[in-house]
């Protein structure tokens, strides 16, 4: 067991013993290989179940608004950014929140493994390597091969807001946001983009796993569940699937922290990230805003500046 896990457990145990929090939201080993699952520790004796490794993929901020009382939460960089947005939107009370920050090298995407080995039967994680016994074959992967796409473009692996930090910090070169993947999509013709997203949306079964995994989809009634007006039918249709995904992306404009939880939760491997990244790029270019970086201020679409672009007001 590494020192980070020991320190997480010790910190959680002390917080619960001292009565500073009612619950610690963290990760425990899942029932399947290479899986971690969110857990809610309410007694010092149960802190030994807490873990930390490359399988801790869930954005735990998604559970923060659903958990009553004073809570501690183990937060990666993207988790902390989501917490910042939730604080800005008055969904959380800062005094009821204790953030245990841990820097993150990235999480693995199990879909990449299963595409080559089939169902994972056994697996072990060693420094820089992951060894897998699969239904179809056995294989050893490097962590770089399995790193989730959202982690590959992450610029904030260190928590931006925390009460205590566990482990070391990750050195990150200061650079402007890079959207090479979005630019590549923008350079395609209209017909090529239309064909791509039509194909992607044809896979969507509208299970809403993406919405449920998102820490910032906290509405008690989603627009797709409304009966009056009724936005979508109950069936599965490519056009309506795109309407749902586009509507969700617009609702996340200036709020999405690009944690990738939605894409990893999708059972159909729909490229939801392409839409989110496009919106993030447009918000960054138009408003010079990255969501969840500082608790000061508010979202990009909640502020007005005389310098805001107003091209949409100009009649051509």
From TrEMBL:
Full protein name: Putative flavin oxidoreductase, subunit FlxC
Domain 4Fe-4S ferredoxin-type: start-end pairs: 247-278
MF terms (GO), sorted A to Z: iron-sulfur cluster binding; metal ion binding
The species this protein was found in: Candidatus Desulfosporosinus infrequens
Annotated InterPro entries: 4Fe4S_Fe-S-bd (IPR017896), 4Fe4S_Fe_S_CS (IPR017900), Helical_ferredxn (IPR009051)
Superkingdom, taxonomy of origin: Bacteria
Keywords: Iron, Iron-sulfur, Metal-binding
Entries under PROSITE patterns matching the protein: 4FE4S_FER_1, 4FE4S_FER_2
């Amino acid at each position: 067991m590494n020192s980070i896990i020991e320190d997480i457990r010790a910190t959680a145990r002390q917080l619960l013993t001292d009565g500073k929090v009612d619950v610690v939201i963290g990760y425990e080993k899942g029932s399947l290989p290479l899986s971690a699952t969110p857990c809610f520790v309410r007694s010092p004796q149960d802190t030994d179940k807490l873990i930390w490794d490359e399988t801790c993929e869930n954005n735990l901020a998604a559970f923060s608004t659903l958990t009553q009382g004073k809570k501690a939460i183990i937060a990666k960089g993207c988790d902390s950014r989501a917490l910042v947005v939730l604080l800005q939107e008055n969904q959380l009370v800062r005094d009821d929140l204790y953030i245990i920050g841990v820097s993150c090298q990235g999480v693995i995407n199990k879909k990449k493994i299963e595409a080559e080995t089939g169902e994972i039967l056994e697996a072990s994680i060693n420094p820089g390597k992951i060894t897998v016994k699969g239904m179809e074959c056995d294989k050893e992967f490097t962590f770089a091969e399995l790193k989730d796409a959202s982690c590959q473009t992450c610029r904030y692996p260190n928590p931006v807001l925390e009460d205590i930090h566990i482990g070391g910090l990750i050195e990150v070169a200061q650079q402007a946001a890079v959207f090479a993947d979005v630019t590549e999509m923008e350079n395609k013709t209209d017909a090529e983009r239309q064909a791509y997203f039509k194909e992607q949306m044809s896979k969507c079964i509208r299970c809403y796993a993406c919405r449920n995994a998102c820490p910032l989809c906290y509405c008690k009634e989603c627009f797709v569940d409304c009966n009056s007006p009724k936005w979508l039918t109950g069936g599965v249709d490519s056009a309506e699937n795109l309407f749902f995904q586009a509507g969700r992306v617009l609702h996340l404009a200036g709020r999405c922290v690009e944690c990738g939880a939605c894409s990893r939760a999708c059972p159909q491997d729909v490229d939801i990230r392409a839409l989110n990244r496009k919106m993030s790029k447009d918000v960054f270019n138009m408003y010079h805003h990255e969501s969840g970086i500082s608790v000061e201020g508010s979202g990009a679409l909640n502020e007005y500046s005389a310098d805001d672009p107003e091209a949409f007001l100009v009649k051509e």
